[in-house]
Amino acid sequence: MIALKTKEFLGTTTEHFSFGNYDISMVKYHKPVSEDWHSHEKYHLSLVLQGGNLESRKGEDIQIFPGSIVLYDKLEVHRNRHTAFPSENLNIEIDDSFFIKNELSTLDFRTSILKNTAVQFQLLKIYKELKIDDTSSSDSIHSSLLTLFSGYHKMTDYKPIWVDTIRELLCDRWDEFITLKELSEKVQIHPVTISRYFSKYFNCTLGEYMRRIKIEKAILFLKHTNKSLTEITFLCGFSDQSHFSKTFKLCTGFKPNEFRRI
Does the keyword Mitochondrion apply (predicted)? Predict the structure, then answer.
């Protein structure tokens, strides 16, 4: 088993940025690397920008694609096989002191982050800021990283059954426009109750959540198909390409064509 130290990866590090209690590295894979079991010294958060692999941990295999978010607890053992070339990851290694300084808990690190519906978009904004690299970038990156943990305590609290029912319904019918009235009828909860508590459990408004789901689907189309922006616009339920492009950039920091070229 390989124990990787901070800033140490199986692939080739092309860029590295240190922010004191966390480090960000751009790592590329152009040729086969070790497929042995390994671990990372710190809490580890990755956004797969290109390529992917088959990841194994705790008796399960997970297929990783572009746009996937991968999280590892400190020293968590895993391995990656069948890497697609070329692959590129944005890796964030987080020190214990980051959690202490910002009064955050390390408990259920992976689960809590993945429940944040904005995680992919915040990571893309961090990537964008790394490319801009001006005097404001450090503050912007720190703000985005903290946003990943926003609502941490709220998300670990008890939540009513209707929350998961709404989540499943919105994901299943992502390409439709579902009204608050229809949601209310489906879960048999008063619309005022849904409106009042939606942001507590989803960390955003109903409208923002529906837009995020559509953009997540658009990311898959951009990375895995040759569909035109016009086709993706209408497949994802946007009224026109201008609206789609503006929403995409608002969520990710990139224009659709810029993102496709990553």
Answer: no
